[in-house]
Specification:
There is one protein chain. Helix 2 links the parallel strand 2 and strand 3. The protein is α/β, with parallel strands linked by helices. Strands 1, 2, 3, 4, 5, 6, 7, 8 and 9 form a 9-stranded mixed β-sheet that branches. Helix 13 runs antiparallel to helix 15. It is globular, with a radius of gyration of 19 Å.
Length: 303
């Protein structure tokens, strides 16, 4: 059977963590080890994990560094002895065939990163339907991910090739605080045209008031808070160009083949601002932002 490392970052997740760990341990047809990094919880999360006394659960207690940095620090610490790796959120519930299906799809399509749809549930576990309707086109190219990543880290399963790329080419902590881990992983995989999306759902994706991220975490309240943060903090203003700059640092030969991605990586120069504006319709195709609003962001350094 394939050996799989499941990477779980926790933070004050005592309400749901046991149900999630139990669902991960119930995976069929694979050998599972769970690596957990606690990101400075102040509730009973760590004590609940210690109750398992399992030989295949490895817990590290760390300081609070935020979800993106916590997941990637955990990934770097996991040895390259596994066939596949998977991210897991602390409050979801996995189908027992989640990992097995992901591996089958990866092998059939010869890709490096698998991601899937999710069944949304409320805090009590009641189904709210699929996150994305069946037959919805999920764009997986670098520009789509730069503008609006649609694949969730909690559904990701990836192989040793992608793990090595991520270990060797580590983004800044500033980027991971801005765009978090799943955007970075998706972007890296997209450079190699190596993502396969499954419209089926093998995860119950819980939505509740304490979500760090989630399908419903982007309402008006979040939008206003996000805009205020971008005004106060320069690093929050230019997440797209920061992401493009980071992939250009490590994979310049690939980025140079895409005029828009190259311009985004060098968006501080006027000629590249002009290149982005010339391609504004391509950009807004993925983000659905207004043309005028996107042009203003490019001109004033909010891209």
């Amino acid at each position: 059977m394939y050996k799989v490392a499941v990477l779980l970052s926790t933070y004050n997740g005592s309400k749901y963590i046991k149900e999630q760990i139990d669902s991960i341990l119930s995976q069929e047809g694979v050998n599972i080890d769970i690596y957990i990094r606690d990101d400075g919880s102040t509730d009973e999360t760590v004590n609940i994990i210690y109750e398992y006394k399992s030989n295949n659960i490895f817990l590290t207690e760390g300081k609070n560094i935020g979800v993106g940095n916590s997941f990637m620090e955990l990934l770097y610490s996991v040895p390259e002895i596994y066939d596949y790796y998977a991210f897991a959120d602390q409050d979801d519930i996995w189908s027992e065939k989640k990992i097995r299906i992901a591996i089958e799809v990866l092998q059939k399509n010869k890709k490096h990163l698998y991601a899937s749809n999710q069944e949304l549930i409320d805090k009590s576990g009641k189904s709210l339907g699929l996150r994305y309707e069946k037959n919805k086109i999920i764009h997986l190219n670098p520009i789509a991910i730069l503008e609006q990543n649609q694949i969730a880290g909690c559904t990701m399963v990836f192989d040793g090739f992608l793990k090595r790329q991520l270990d060797l080419n580590q983004p800044s902590k500033e980027l991971l605080a801005n765009r978090i881990h799943d955007v970075w992983v998706a972007m890296v995989a997209s450079l190699f045209d190596s993502i396969i999306y499954d419209e089926r759902a093998f995860i119950k994706y819980r939505q509740h008031d304490d979500n760090v991220v989630g399908a419903y975490a982007y309402g008006m309240k979040y939008d206003i808070k996000s805009k205020i943060m971008k005004i106060r903090n320069k690093e929050q203003r230019n997440g797209r160009s920061l992401l493009a700059k980071m992939v250009y640092k490590y994979w310049p030969e690939i980025v140079c083949q895409d005029r828009v991605l190259f311009a985004a990586a060098n968006a501080n120069k006027m000629k590249n601002k002009c290149a982005l504006i010339a391609n504004v319709q391509k950009l807004r195709f993925y983000s659905k932002e207004s043309t005028g609003g996107l042009i203003l962001k490019i001109l004033f350094g909010f891209f």
